[in-house]
Each structure stands twice: as C-alpha cells, then as structure tokens.
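Data deposition worksheet. Section B asks for the primary sequence of the deposited chain exactly as it was used as input, without tags or linkers unless they were present during the calculation. Section C holds the resulting structure in token form. Section D is free text for depositor observations; keep each observation to a single sentence. Incomplete worksheets are returned to the depositor.
Section A, Depositor: J.P.
Section B:
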Amino acid sequence: MAKGKAKKAAAKQKLEKSPREPSKVLDQKPAVEVSQEKVSLDEKVVGLENLGNTCFFNSVLQNLVTLEVVHQKYGATDDDASGEEIGPLHSGMRVLLSGMESAGKVYNPRPVFNAVCKRAPQFKSMQQQDSHELLRYLLDGLQMEERDALKKLAASSDGESTKSESTVASEKTPLPLPPTWIERTFGGELQWSTTCQECHHVSVVKEPFQDISLPVPVASQEQAGDGKK
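Section C:
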C-alpha cells in the first residue's frame, strides 16, 4: 500500500508541474450578421395602451410594427423627411414608431387612432370592431395618401418642363405611377383564364388584390366521430 501511495503522489506532482494547455475560446460571432435595428425589434417589447375596447386596433398595429419595411418607411433612420407632408396617417405612423422606440413598457397610440377615425368614423364608437376591417381601412388610407403625393410630385415635375415639352407630354399617354409600399408589400394579382370551346381562344383577366379570404375546411360528422381532423 505504501508503494501505491508513493506512485499516486508522484503522478500528482508530475501533473502539477506539467504546463497546462491554453483553453480554446469558441468563436462567438453569429453565423448571420444581424443589424442593430433588427436586434432592437426582437429584444424590445412595447405594449399599446387600450383606449377603450381598442384591442382590435392594437393587435393590428403590433403586427405591422414587426415588419422591417414599416421601420424602413416610418422609422427614425428613414432619410425621407416628407412623410409628415403626405397625410395624417403617414404622420401618425411615424409618430407611432418614434414613440414606441423611446417609450418604456407602454405607449399611447392615439395619434394613429384619431387619424383612422377621421377616415372611418365607425371606429370612434369605442366598441369591439373587426381587426381585418380596421387593417383594410388603414392600408387603403396609407395607399391613397401616398398615391396623392405621387400625383402631386408628377404634376410638379411636369410644370417645371418647358412649354413645348409640356405640349408634347400632354399628347402622350401619362406614365403610370410607381407602386406604393403597400402594393409592393401586400399586393398580388389573380389571373382568370377562359378558353373558348370552339376556337380555343384564351382570354385572360387580371385582378389585383391585397388579401385573399380562404375557406377553412370543416370536418364531416363521420370524420369527427372517428377522431380524424
């Protein structure tokens, strides 16, 4: 037993004298670089004050402010300072973003709510409303304000041209307006094709949309009885 203790003591002494290998430091850089703006959106949570049965309104705003395109359009980093001149809804969205970024845990969204109520007075009743209906009024209002601003911009640019140039331009077909950010983000297009049975001519009709109502399948009584979903 004495020899066994001596061997253990010698092995312990040898281990203490041997230099330790430097510990390996794992690379802590993320696999994908995330902008500071995106991190702040993920980390900061700000509630919206209930103005009186306005849960439907707050839920729509909370979903919109999670979109990066909304922060690019109305955030503090937006270089376009003309948002306040476009219309009350654009101004309200800009105030909402800046207010939520500087607020603590709760922010009062009344500026946007008042702007929506001016366009759709039915939401002023302080009663429960449909969130989808509110979203449609809000997006349609933002789109109309931006279209009006684009039309004014196009008219002012035409006014700066010479008389001869304006005469030629009036004879031409006016150029279409560029799509708004609402159309670029939420817009889509339905295409309907009809084929003639005799001449086999195909007529195509295109219809723009911003949302589609899809039916929710309901299980039959037999499937419900079998426990199938």
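Section D:
The beta strands are 47-48, 106-107, 188-195, 202-209.
The chain is about 50% helix and 10% strand.
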